[in-house]
Design brief:
Layout (H helix, E strand, L loop, with lengths): L1 E2 L7 H11 L24 E2 L10 E5 L14 E5 L2 E9 L2 E2 L2 E4 L2 E4 L8 E9 L5 E9 L5 E3 L1 E6 L2 E2 L12 E5 L5 H7 E6 L4 E5 L4 E6 L7 E7 L10 E3 L3 E7 L3 E6 L4 E6 L2 E7 L7 E3 L5 E3 L5 E4 L2 E8 L18 E8 L6 E4 L16 E3 L1 H10 L5 E5 L24
Parallel strand pairs: 11-19, 21-31, 29-30
Antiparallel strand pairs: 1-2, 3-4, 4-8, 5-6, 5-9, 7-8, 9-10, 12-13, 12-14, 14-17, 15-18, 16-17, 18-20, 21-22, 22-23, 24-25, 26-31, 27-28, 28-29
Length: 414
């Protein structure tokens, strides 16, 4: 459609039109008067509704083209102005990144990988429907080191997902290398039902414990998430991947072993269920073959069950007494129904040779029981159950087994 220039029509216009329509006069136009003076007043037509120029499509990609060291947690977004977004394809080699398109914006829906280059191809159409394509690329951060996460029941056993543990079982998160403690704690998410508050205690730069103020109540469930992937856990260390686990506390078992009364009483959910004649550490001590000081007191305070062994060979050489002429020497004895409560070798175990169970303390630090009682303990105690030793002059160090409960909550960790 074309737009013609406006022509003013009057007497002159009519005359001009007549001249054009009839025969033209010849010569210098003297016969035609003013109307035939040589002009036809023809106006060249011009286009009607001239199309506005097409604005080029603008594609905005985040991260931007050529960006480096991009966090693997940052989502990719693509949006278009002066056009319509029709498709987005993001690849890293043969791998394709998933995403969704909503309200004109494409957003990735999965985490990226470390140390990869991503290509973003955007297809769009301008206002006339003409297709256009835009390409961008960026690279993600490549850590010098990564730290993996495992969950421990204690230093001797891995925590088993969904299994039942005792009322003294702390949450233990172990990293495969040293990490920044504050960054690591921020990445750890612990949810309990019923809900309780808790605190962290770092055993070393790689292993952190978490416990509530009191023993877990019966029926508690504990869920742990470590959102470590993409998190900077040290100067050159990033989390290798996220990890999660859970455990439950079906019943609360607490055994109280009294050094003075030579009795061990077991309570389940607050109810006394068994009383056992015992014989604890005889006291005193000696010096080991390497000059180490050895105590024969059973350590005092709450211990946590670490493992159970149907039989276990016990020897004084394991803690430094190696001379067969030493009166404290013993070795090569296979002991039945052993329930370990410290890393240094304290067990509840069968001691049929001890004729003073319930009367006197004669062991080298373990809690001696009758074979029947030791068997019952072996069959009924689980990892995380509490064995609280009373009235002994030596305290269990926090690092010896799970001594987490040997310190008050206000002094525990952070």
């Amino acid at each position: 459609m074309f737009k013609r220039r406006k022509v003013i029509i009057g007497a002159l216009g009519v005359a001009a039109t007549a001249t054009v329509a009839g025969c033209s006069t010849s010569g210098n136009g003297s016969g035609g008067g003013t109307a035939g003076s040589g002009s036809t007043n023809w106006v060249e037509p011009v286009a009607d509704n001239i199309a506005a120029p097409v604005t080029p499509v603008t594609v905005t990609t985040t991260p931007a083209d050529a960006d480096k060291d991009v966090s693997v947690l940052d989502p990719i977004t693509v949006k278009v102005t002066d056009g319509t977004l029709t498709a987005v394809t993001v690849t890293a080699g043969k791998e394709k990144v998933k995403g969704t398109l909503a309200d004109g914006v494409w957003t990735s829906t999965e985490n990226l990988d470390y140390g990869k280059t991503y290509k973003v191809v955007t297809e769009a159409a301008d206002s006339t429907g003409t297709p256009t394509e835009h390409t961008a690329s960026f690279s993600t951060v490549k850590p010098a080191k990564t730290a993996k996460v495992t969950f421990q029941a204690n230093g001797l056993a891995i925590l088993k997902e969904g299994k039942a543990y005792g009322a003294g079982q702390p949450v233990i998160v172990a990293f495969s290398r040293a990490v920044n403690k504050k960054a690591a704690e921020k990445a750890i998410e612990i949810t309990t039902s019923p809900s309780v508050e808790g605190k962290f205690y770092w055993k070393d730069d790689q292993t952190v414990h978490w416990r509530p103020a009191k023993y877990w109540a019966a029926g508690t469930t504990v869920k742990v998430k470590v959102n470590a992937f993409g998190v900077k856990l040290g100067k050159t260390v990033y989390g290798a991947k996220n990890a999660s686990t859970s455990f439950k506390v079906n019943r609360q078992l607490i055994a109280v072993s009294d050094n003075r009364t030579h009795m061990t009483k077991v309570y389940i959910d607050g109810k006394l269920v068994r009383t056992m004649k015992s014989s604890l550490g005889k006291g005193g001590g000696t010096t080991g073959s390497n000059g180490e000081k050895i105590s024969y007191w059973t350590a005092g305070g709450p211990h946590v069950v670490l493992e159970k062994l149907r039989t276990h060979v016990m020897s004084s050489a394991s803690y430094g007494v190696t001379d067969p002429n030493d009166p404290n020497y013993y070795g090569g004895d296979e002991i039945e129904y052993c329930t370990r409560i410290s890393y240094s070798g304290e067990f509840l175990h069968a001691a049929p040779w001890n004729g003073q169970l319930g009367q006197a303390n004669r062991s080298h630090g373990c809690i001696n029981l009758s074979t029947a009682d030791a068997k019952w303990v072996y069959e009924n105690f689980i990892h995380g159950d509490i064995v609280d030793v009373k009235n002994t002059p030596r305290e269990l160090p926090i690092w010896n087994g799970l001594g987490d409960w040997t310190v008050s909550y206000d002094r525990y960790g952070n």
